[in-house]
Amino acid sequence: MNLPAPTRPAVQRILIVKLSSLGDVVHAMPAVQDLHRAYPQAQIDWVVERGFAPLVQRCDGVGRVIPCDLRRWRKSWWTAATRAAWRAFKQELQRDAYDAVLDLQGLTKSALVARLARTAQGGKRYALAHRTDGSSYEAPTRWVADEAISMHPHVHAVQRSRQLCAQALGSDAHPAPRFGLRAARTQAPAWLAPASSPFVPAQPVVALVHGTSRADKEWPLAQWVALGQRLEKAGFLVALAHGSQREQDQSQSIAAGLERPVLWPLMPLDDLTDTLAFCAGVIGVDSGVSHIAVALDLPHVQIYNFNTAWRTGPLPDPYGGAARQLSVYAQPTPNVQEVWSAWIALGVPVLPPQATLSGH
Question: Following CA atoms 250, 256, 260, 265 in sequence, which dihedral angle do they give, to the nearest 10 degrees?
Fold first, then answer.
């Protein structure tokens, strides 16, 4: 007997509330893809901190991006400029009424935004009912919600958002996650991997993402140098990515130990995303930029000093396909051989040095 398909609620407008940080924003993107498949005619808007708005604008299925500056406003809430900016934000937030407001953050600040958003007649606010392992959670998120969603506490960050949306609105969280992150540039920038000669094919570039917001997640600089030397010996060109002056200084320290490093300039988040998209692969610590590499489906090794890869690391392919991303964990830190072995296991092709001159 054929059972009828589950009935989904009538939804025309959906609001995602996921404000920060970079990795968390990236991890919410597959939930948007699930919703877009379930409700292809619905408009899906997203409230996010202004610094991450350019990235969210690259996410398939997102209609209106509503930027906010809560991090900055709370430091100067008493000023006339902040009050004016807050009023403008509220006006933009409340422009449309939503059938569903989904708080995927689970914090007081996201609960405030969800509460301020307008709901349509019969519309509901949804949020997580409790904390999950290794994640922040604050009680106001469930106080504001019309429906608080419970789930198993031991859940990957990507799956947590997907499962919340699935239970709230009937989207499908079972297939392999798709991030829907688009790179906009169609041609690699000249400085990405400058060729030494027009007669030599461009070498494949591997970006090293060494910067992270937490010092205890960093990998020793000497090990980055040793890894970069192995990559160069294997025929790769090593690029060094950074998002701050401190990280740029670290890139220069690593570059001093390499033969032909490419130091990328400091660049906006959207430009960095575009540039990463042209790389043959990425090796990085647990950071937002590393999660962007995963979202772009680049071959990627992610380095962990803590046993938390189950929560934020690359997800295995549920269909048993070849791995595109791997995580490496050890304490106090993985060694170079462990990271190198994971990179080799990905099977990223490279032109052997002798092959670059063949036929010329």
Answer: 30
